[in-house]
Amino acid sequence: MTIFRRLLLRLGTSLIVLIGVSMLIFSIARVIPGDPARIALGPRATIEQVEQMREALHLNEPLVVQYGLFMRDLAKGDLGISLYSKRPVMTDLAEYLPATLELVLLAGLMMVVFGLPLGALSARYRGRWPDHLIRVFSLLTVSAPAFVWAVALVLVFAYFLPLFPITGRIADTLDIPRLTGFMLIDTLAAGRLDGFVSALHHLILPAFALALSGIGQASRLTRGNMIVTYEQPSIEMAQAYGFSEARIARRYAFKPSLIPSLTIIGLDFAALLGNAFLVEIIFAWPGLSRYGVGVILQKDLNAIVGTVLIISATFLIANIIVDFLVSVINPRIRLSEGGK
Amino acid sequence: MSAPLTLEIQDLRLSFKSWSGTTEVLHGIDLSVASGERVALVGESGSGKSVTSRIVLGTMQDVRSARVSGRINFDGRDLSSMTVAERRALRGRDISMIFQDPTSALNPVFRIGALFHEVLQRRDRRITKAEARRRAVKLLQEVSIEDADRVLDSYSFQLSGGMNQRVMIAMALINEPRLLLADEPGTALDVTVQAQSLELMRNMVDRLGTSVLFISHNLGVVREFADRIYVIYRGNIVERGPTASIFDSPKHPYTKALLSAIPRLTGGGVPEIEEHSPAFSDPLVTHNMTHDNMTHGSGR
Prior knowledge:
With about 350 residues, chain A is an all-alpha fold. Chain A has 14 helices and no strands. In chain A, helix 12 (about 290-295) runs antiparallel to helix 13. The model of chain A has no long low-confidence stretch (mean pLDDT about 85). Chain B is α/β, with parallel strands linked by helices and about 300 residues long. Mean pLDDT of chain B is about 85; it is low at about 265-275, about 285-290 and about 295-300.
């Protein structure tokens, strides 16, 4: 009951944020210099043709009226036509978003699955060789951006050691009918296990490149939090009761340390959407981040607004999920918010 | 002292190795606790009293920079020759501990009931949740917690400090240990609540016949509780003896200083109370208002 109400509240505030974002990006896209109609039609188009297109795009109306028209269309699920691909923006988004989400979700999973245990291990063996090893690794991964790792990983694991494919989402020889756009799901839905394996094979390297600095970040955070937790009297009490070190690490130190780590990982996860751009370029990944940069350079108004809105919405949803997870782990939050 | 010794420490030394060399912090301590006896180890912070309790608990030996030497006998078994696992096996079953700040010592992400269950599993691995709860309720009632069910369903941060202190006393004694280490119990609480919880702790160790090593910086608190007192100063035991004789005729200048450091109700802004007023029967006041204490006060 209370959880349901809180969820509704969060969704409501998120909607307000989205509307704010839409206003902002809508105005910015139109204020920056350059005539979108001229860019779309090219230098050879006549002034009449450009004027005609400006009229069709309502570009001659006041900004407020333009925004009103945009919102009216959005309510009908219509984001307009992309000037760049000449297709409805919704169609473009539906095509590119799943590829990026697949990449980002796996990268986020890797951050949690590798980052948290590495940090916990590091804290538990503080000052000994596993700790030193993990700390060097974490610092290294944090200090270089994702695209550096993408290039390095391609060089080592696709070029020198041809263990992974360099580009694409699935082997060219396979033809999987498009259902959701998530390759992993579509292959399973088609009952093609070989396709699933191939898709996963293609996904691992770019996702890992994208996740690497997040893994380091998560590991460093978890280590720090766990070391602070280890100083707490509650850990000494657990030791005084003779619980094994493994049990203390797992239950008494790791769980409280998860709370701040998860919050940051949630933010990092959302940042992956932006970082994905260069990784998508390097791996020729047909994703939304690449599309987003392309449409910005083209000053493709409708597509810019659509892409930014989708990325913001993903960010907000990721945050809601993380907050929810944190409140499940942290009884203080759960009880204080439930009680009011 | 003819009763068998629960704890016997001889020539206990502790030093810490660091980059700049070795620092000795305990310089050969002798201490014993007889079966069922309540012994206090009193000293200022940094005197070595807490590390002594950690050595008895067996956790200090696991600190990599620490070097422990000397004989520590627990129930006739030599603690210093035990492995890490053997020492751990004693903890929570034969030796348990009460901490200074109960609210931070109880893990905030688990309910009290879950913590009790885990502690009981130290004695009986297969104990069921229901059985653990039943025993926890029984013991909580013994420390005057009426609504034990509500407490077991709560997290430590939902309970008052005094309540948590009682929970911790019950938790420390639920496995009926031979020795209870109490490290400044209730120092984080206000004096009234501290006195109440010490009273409850005393009743319980009396019933169970538990030996207690009580660590404190406050002689006043100890007076009500301990049979014997050791005074520790800079890693040495400077005075030892039955509680009454320490209070009546302290020998060492440090003990005298400690005695005069006990807050008194006389003088200052608090009104004078007649020496033979009925208020003296109040245990909270008596140990602060004793004759020798007053003479010390006036002697300064």
